[in-house]
Every structure is written in structure tokens, then in C-alpha cells.
Amino acid sequence: MADLELRHLRAVCAIVETGSMSKAAIRLGLTQPALTAQLQRVERLVGGRLFDRSPTGSTPTELGRYVVNTARLVLDDLDHLLASAQDRARTFTPQPLLAGCMPMLFLARLVAELSNRLPCSEVRTEIEPVGHTLVEMLNSARLHLAVFERFDGLERRKLSGVEIRTLVLEPQFVAVAEDHPLAVREVISLAELADCDWVVPPPEANSLRMQLHTACATAGFTPRIRHHTWEAGMARVLVENGAVSLAAPASRSGNGIAVRPLLGDPLQVPIMVGVRTDGALAGRAHEVFASAAYAYRSIVDRNPTFAQWWADHPEAHAELDAAMLVCPPLAV
User: Fold this and answer.
1) Cα–Cα–Cα angle for 179, 237, 150, nearest 5°?
2) Secondary structure letter of residue 22 according to DSSP
3) pLDDT per residue over 86-130, tens digit each?
4) Is the pTM of this model over 0.70?
């Protein structure tokens, strides 16, 4: 029986399905004599005639029906084997991981965490200042994951195959020039910035736009916005020359800039992590979230003031802490 081949099984199935040797030969791309030779070989191997031939076609004998039914089972099993093996090959062959992120201080550490925790050939990043653009890219499967600041209207987006979680509720500090009169303060009140020129991101890239105006109105003034840029180096130059801007709390003071917390934390922004629930990251959202958690935690101590704020506000990073408990740190 070792001489029986899959092509022989396909041949006898084709004869039954088409009802004639000539039609089966056309389907298989063989000449009729070649198909007849294959059938005769099978009949010699099994020890009996498989078809009765007549002017109207080929009819399987009882032995032929048995062989055909069994052949179909074998061929179906083979198809299933090939399909499942190909799926596993695609699953376990490392592919590039596409990560989108707003400009954030923990991006480099995030890339390292993802590279070491997830099966991928490399991590490629798309740096995009606009959160809703990253969500659109994630929703259309142009990204596997995205890290962004929450923006107005996120809850109204129609998302498919995407899981989004809050990483941390991040306070906003303020940056002033080192020689600014308020730089000597450990904490600055928002109301004390009423007469300052502000540097903010362009409206379409500013997830804190409405929150800033609301907080300033509560403090009794309208912010005097004079400069729009999302480029950190340009914002820094403007601040060094007398303007003020919001700053990520892990930002360091120095080189002409003083970074200070705002009294009462009037401005806070949720940092979000979005993951595709299909494809390369199916079933791995918790590992992505843990990667972002460890990456963010690594920058907290850059600014001692933020490190103290972090210790005093465990409620702001409860989900981040939980993610780190679920996935242990990477071995050094």
C-alpha cells in the first residue's frame, strides 16, 4: 500500500465527481490514457475493480464507493493539516510590530519592552502628534498598538477589533524660564500665569485645549496664547525667552528651563493604550499594557518632584501598578 499516492486518491474522487474518465482527465489536467493508467495502478494495489464503465460514463463498484469515501476522508484531513500548519507558521514566524505613539518621554523604553516581551522581528514606530490620527490608524489595522493622550470624542468613535485602556492619569506641570520670577517657587498657581504668553500645540493636536481654557477660566483669566507648536525644541526656545507652556511631569529642569507642578493639579490627561485584538497581538493585550506600564514607570524618577507626586497619588496609577503585578519585570 506504500505505493498508493495522493494523486491516485484525487484521481478516483475526480472520476466519481465528474461521472466519466474524460471529464475527470480534463479536471486533473491529464490525458485520458494517463488517467486510465493511474486508475489501473490503484485497482492493482487494492485488488479489485473500482468502476464499471459504460457509454454513459463510469459508475463506482461497491469496492469503488468504499475507496472513494475513505479517500475523501484522507484528502480532507490533509487539507486541514496543511491549513492549520500554515496558520501556525504565520503565527510563530516573527513579523514587524507596528506601534504608534505621540511624542512621549518613555517611547524608547516602550520599544525595548515590546521587543523583549512580544514575538516580533522588530518594532517599528510611527510618531504622530494627533491622538485621533493614531486611533484611526489603529482602527484600520495600520498599527498593532497605539499610545496617546485621551481626546474629546474618543468615546464616540466606532472602533472594531480594538481594545483601549487607561494607563495613567498624568498631571500637567508648567515650564517657565529659569530667570522667571515664578521659577523660585516649588509650586506655581495657575492664576499667577495670567499675564504670561503661552506656547501650546496647534488646536488639532492639543488634547488639553478645552481643559486649559476651562481651568484658566476657573482661575479668573483667559490664557494669552501667542505661539502654536508641537515641536518640543521650539517650545523650549520660546519658554527660555519668557513664554510659558505645559510640560510632561517627568520633564527635567535645567538648561534655561524650570519645570514646576501646578497648585491643585488643575490639568490632568489620561494616557491611553490601544491594541488590536486580532492579528499579531491577538490574546496579548495584557502584555502590551504591561510593556507600556514598565516603560512609563521608568521615567517617573527623572523629575524628583514628579516622583514625590507619584508616591502621594497612588489612585492616578492604579491600573499601571496592576499591570506590572500581572506581568513580572524582564530579567536584566
Assistant:
1) 105
2) H
3) 776 666 667 899 999 999 999 999 999 999 999 888 999 999 999
4) yes
